[in-house]
Structure formats: C-alpha cells, structure tokens
Amino acid sequence: MKEWYDSIKEAQSVDKLEEIRIAIFGKKGVLAVEFAKMKSASNEEKAQLAKDLNTYKSSLMNELTARKIILQTLELQELMKAQAIDVSLFSATSETGALHPVMETMDRIVEYFSAMNFSIKTGNMVEDDFNNFEALNLPKYHPARDMQDTFYFKDELLLRTHTSPVQIRTMMNTKPPIRMIAPGAVFRRDYDLTHTPMFHQVEGLLVDEEGKVSFANLKYILEDFLKYMFGDVKVRFRPSFFPFTEPSAEVDISCVFCKGEGCRVCSKTGWLEVLGCGIVDPNVFEAVKYENVSGYAFGLGVERFAMLIHQIGDLRALFEGDIKLLEQFQ
Ligand code: PHE
After folding, report:
1. At 94, is the pLDDT very low, low, confident or very high (cuts 50, 70, 90)?
2. Within this chain, do residues 55 and 107 fall inside the same structural domain, yes or no?
C-alpha cells in the first residue's frame, strides 16, 4: 500500500491526482477491496484490521488534499504566466491619428481669440444672397461680386463665398456689443496652385458703442495675433478695398521663408499677405438695423496660414489625403 503515497507525491496534475483518488477511494478502489477482505477474518482480527485500514484511509486522504492544493496553485501560476500581457510591447496596430494641419491651425486661431474673449459662431454653409452679398454692401451687379466666383443653387441660394455672412447673421439676432469669430468652410469656383473650391476662413467681428472702436484697436489685436501665430515677424497694413469695411486694409507679415530678404514664395517682395480687415462700413450696420455703433472686422484663410506655418508649397497637398504628408504632423 505504500506505493499509493508515492503516486500521490509524484502526481503532476490535478487531473492525474483525481485518477489516483478514484483508484484508492472509488467504489472499486483498493480500499474497498481491502475492506471486503475483512469479511473472512476472525472477529479479533477484524477489529485490528478496521482500525489499521481507517488510519490508513485518513492519512491517504490528508496526503491527497495537501497535494491537490499544491498542484492547483502551480496550475494557476502557469495559467497566469501564459496569459500575462506585456504592456510595454510595441504593437503592429498602434498607429495613432493626428489632427489635419488645417484643423490644427484653425484650433490655434480659435484658441487665441477665445482667450481674448471672442465667442465662436458657425453660421450656414448654404447661404442666401442677402447674407452673403446684399447686407455686406454688395448690391446686385456690384463689380466687387466678381472678386468671388460663386456656386449658385436656384432661388437665390448659394454656397457661402466667405465667412462674412456670419457677421450679418450674428448682428441680426443679437444686440451689440459683439465680440465674435466665425471659423468655417467657404466655397469658390477656383482651382489652381493656390486655390481650391473649398477652403476655410476665420472671420472676426467686434462691435461696440459709437466712437469706442478704432482702427488702432484693430491694428493692435491683429499684430498681437500674428505674432502669436508666426512668432517674431514684422507686420504691415496696406490700404485696400472691401465693400463691407471702410477704411479697409490688407495685412502682410515679413516672409517666413526668407525672413524678408525676398524669395520665390514672396515674389521677391519680402512680404506675405495674410489677412483682410477694416472698420465696419456704415451700410452694413444699416442693413442689420444697428444704430450708434462702431466696429471692426477681419477675415483670413486658414489653409494659407497652415501652409506658411508648416512650409507647404502646394495648397492642393492639403486636400489629397496623402498619408505620407499627414504622418509628418503626428
Ligand atoms: N470676406 C473677405 C474675403 O473673403 C475678408 C474680409 C473679412 C475682409 C472681413 C475684411 C473684413 O476676402
């Protein structure tokens, strides 16, 4: 019977141990056979045999239970080892996305003006003639409408050609003072190295009591903003024309490629045009029925900013979804 102790000690798995348990304690197991032998023994012998067999039985049972606990623990450890995950391993599918450079640039612009307490308006991409042109002092047949080649639907509907209609929508449904920016997509019938039919602008509008808003205010904030976006650049304002502002200006920064020396990108001028702006034309305030107010407005092209910040040569590269280009912005 001694060999059963050895088998228990040598058992290498819980399953094997269970087989041994059945062989010892099962209905036809060795103990059952031994107990059956007692029948033919004398009464005296019986008492002694029963005592021995019972001692033997309980000690085998103890051995078995002890071994079972050890084997279960070992098997659990094996399982945990097999299922362990090395969180420091690289995975083939661990590529992360990144913001498109245009959206990243837009976020930065919005970040600046939010910090300056401008609220964010979105307006509509499908606009009507009134908001996109008429109210912005661009009556029908006004030659300045040709500045922006428009996609038309029927019934006076069109795809907005700039974000300036958001100025109108905002003034039509809020009382002054106003301090807003409008980031969003705009559409023009244009396609070449520097134009795509869809691009993004950020519009700005500030309106307060008459006499409170000056060109100096506009100049100050735009200079500060451009330095925030482009770092240490020179900024200059050039007189220009927009129907919805008077006076109007275009704003240049010193060329970020040649630092103002003159290169191919800035056409040897040393300057890059980045913004349109001006003092809100009284006709615009009249169209939205505002009285005794003054204000400034500005508008910029986000793609142009992104190209200058990231030194991208061809505007169309921003819209081709080329993964090689986009991966550089992770
Ligand atoms: N809406 C003008 C454009 O698209 C930009 C602009 C906005 C100019 C506001 C002045 C004031 O060209």
Report:
1. low
2. no
Q: Answer for the pair 276, 300: CB distance below 8 angstroms, yes or no.
A: yes
Name the residue range of residue 14's domain.
Answer: 2-82
Give how far Cα 29 sits from Cα of 54, 66, 67, 131, Å: 15, 20, 19, 97
- 162 and 227 in a single domain? The answer is yes
Centroid of ligand 1 to alpha carbon of 195 (angstroms): 16
Q: Is the CB of 121 under 6 A from ligand 1?
A: no
Check whether residue 19 and residue 121 sit in a common domain.
no
CATH of the domain at 178: 3.30.930.10
pLDDT in tens, 56-68: 899 999 999 999 9
CA of 159 relative to ligand 1 center, distance in Å:
16
Ligand 1 contacts CB of residue 305 (under 6 A): no
Rg of the chain over all Cα atoms, to the nearest angstrom: 42
Q: Do 160 and 127 meet the contact criterion of CB atoms below 8 Å apart?
A: yes
Whether the predicted model's global pTM rises above the 0.85 cut: no
Alpha carbon nearest to ligand 1 atom 2, residue: 299
Identify the pLDDT of residue 248. 98
Domain count, the chain: 2
**Nearest-angstrom CA–CA distance, 230 and 218:** 18
Same domain? For 117 and 70 the reply is no
Q: Tell me if 96 is assigned to some domain.
A: no
Express each pLDDT in 267-316 by its tens digit. 999 999 999 999 999 999 999 999 999 999 999 999 999 999 998 877 88
Mutation test residue for ligand 1: of 148, 162, 302, the one with most atoms within 8 Å of CB? 162
**Is 90 part of a structural domain of the chain?**
no
151 and 187 housed in the same domain: yes
